[in-house]
Amino acid sequence: MQSQSSRWLGHGLYLLIMAVLISGVYVSGQRINYTWHWERLWPYIVNTAPQDIIADTDGTVVVDQQGKLSITPDYGGDPQVVTDYTTLVAFDGDLIFQGDTLARLEGWRFGPIAEGLWVTIKISFISLIFSIILGLIFGLMRISHRQVLRNLAVTYVEVIRGTPLLVQIFIVYFFIGTVFDLDRFTAGVAALSIFTGAYVAEIVRAGIQAVPTGQMEAARSLGMNYVQAMCYVVMPQAIKRTLPPLAGQFINLIKDSSLVSVISITDLTKAGREVVSGSFAPFEVWFTVAALYLVVTGALSWAIQILEQRLSASD
């Protein structure tokens, strides 16, 4: 076992290496004459500036006794009604034109980076659920006694693993999405689920085959049928063996979700590109985006480690 002094020495060396790396990034920025502007980034994460409420059409402003503001359009149509505001800019009877400011709303709201992070988490979580379902189905088909099921599973796994995810996203969105009238988000989830499901299927197959065959035979000798033996004896053991590779695959899923930005889904990566063009702070934005991906993947890795420890403790 490591002594206390050697552990502290290891921690000290780690901190020294991290300090050198951070210093290297800073010096590199100075050498290319880059000025850091971290303060520009905050409004794109949480925006506390007042929000202008803009007129959608030309018309006349009407403010009733309850303070509700509306615009009576000059050329007919439904009026624009504004009920949630802090400060009025236009008043009763004013003539207003499309694009003019009607009122301002104080408070805070999530910026595009925070909204992109939420889209990334949502699309990754939904894809993770469906990829587990697909992986279990095709993993069991890979070890089935029926040749047709094995052939179908092998075809699915080899085709998906043998083609790039970016190409699959384009095929799902432009072909399958057009046939079934899928929106961008659904097409992105479908592509990520199908892609990750192929890798999960191989992990499940390997985990089941790693369980000694005597376990199945012993369960069948106790009177269990095949499904009962698989659910109560084989699969619990296989899950413990597959958790580490599954964790790595799910982390890859979160990182691979950045590719859905090519079909105009405003995830964290696409939000980062948009913020770079508006903030002129590319290094700050991409370091922040990388840190947010690291937080999400680190949280998933930590959760799976906790699950793995609990499963090992139940032996």
UniProtKB/TrEMBL annotation:
PROSITE patterns: ABC_TM1
A Pfam family recorded for this sequence: BPD_transp_1
Gene3D superfamilies: MetI-like
UniProtKB keywords: Amino-acid transport, Cell membrane, Membrane, Transmembrane, Transmembrane helix, Transport
One GO CC term, this protein: ATP-binding cassette (ABC) transporter complex
One annotated GO molecular function: transmembrane transporter activity
UniProt xrefs under InterPro entries: AA_ABC_transptr_permease_3TM, ArtM/GltK/GlnP/TcyL/YhdX-like, MetI-like, MetI-like_sf
Bilayer-spanning residue ranges: 12-29, 117-141, 153-176, 285-304
Membrane topology: Multi-pass membrane protein
ABC transmembrane type-1 domain sequence ranges: 117-304
Subcellular location: Cell inner membrane; Cell membrane
Keyword Transcription applies: no
SUPFAM superfamilies associated with the record: MetI-like (SSF161098)
Alphabetical GO biological process terms: amino acid transport
Protein family according to the UniProt entry: Belongs to the binding-protein-dependent transport system permease family. HisMQ subfamily.
NCBIfam families linked to this entry: HEQRo_perm_3TM
Free-text function comment from the UniProt entry: Part of the binding-protein-dependent transport system for glutamine; probably responsible for the translocation of the substrate across the membrane.
The name this protein goes by in its record: Putative glutamine transport system permease protein GlnP
